[in-house]
Amino acid sequence: EVFHAYRHSEATTAVPSGLATLDARAISAWFGDHKVLDRVSLTMEAGKITALIGPSGCGKSTFLRILNRMHEMIPSASLAGEVLLDGHDIYDQGRRITDARRDVGMVFQKPNPFPAMSIYDNVVAGLKLSGQRASKGDRDVIVETSLTKAGLWKEVRDRLRQPGGGLSGGQQQRLCIARSIAIRPRVLLMDEPCSALDPTSTRVIEETMLELAHEVTIVIVTHNMQQAQRVSENCAFFLAAQGQPGGIVEHGKTEAMFGNPVDSRTADYVHGRF
Ligand code: ADP
Ligand code: MG
User: Fold this and answer.
1) pTM assigned to the model
2) What GO cellular-component annotations does this UniProt entry give (predicted)?
């Protein structure tokens, strides 16, 4: 089985892994008795960027963590609902957490490369963690391909053996993107990936995302309304009323959500009146 997994990985190194739709159905989430999401349904279309917007505390990060089974790592956490990746529920009995993790990658707000580890080893770190084996030659190809896709190759090709922690914040975030895509996820979740970055680095990451969207379905949480409009095709507005679990008020094409929102709360939020 290991042999087959390895052959498969080798054979598909250079080609996109196939575009996948992620379909969240009636997702509810709790921390202990505290319900934080109530029956959230959202289709994140294959090969497109979906932006999740909304005030702090309305459950966006929780929703993202449910999409790659990180939520269940939190001891007090529970959930209900289904997450279908190309029609298959990632929570089905018999499906492993590690498979969900490999299929659905995550990039966090604060760039988190292994700081003392070399740039090269950072990129391939995810391969090892997800149990994929690759020869030195394969790894070299994966490192160059992933760094190129993350828009970082030209800047680091001559210093792959230097520590990841020596890079600038924006470069570190692109290194984290490279590490995520090295294992060829079908979906990439990004939780406020540019919040800790300057505007120039932010624009570089946005361009990287727009390129990546050709081969991986992307879901991004952002508080930057310009960013949502620049990168996303679809958008969902999350809101939690006082003391209530979060939910989606409105979702649809980003252009329509910003240009002609249906709900007055959406209009208030996208125009900064919250
Ligand atoms: P957002 O990302 O939209 O700011 P979160 O998903 O982080 O929202 O949080 C949603 C709700 O869940 C908040 O009330 C928050 O306090 C709570 N919450 C988030 N993480 C935990 C946790 N690990 N334990 C308990 N409550 C949590
Ligand atoms: Mg959050």
Assistant:
1) 0.92
2) membrane
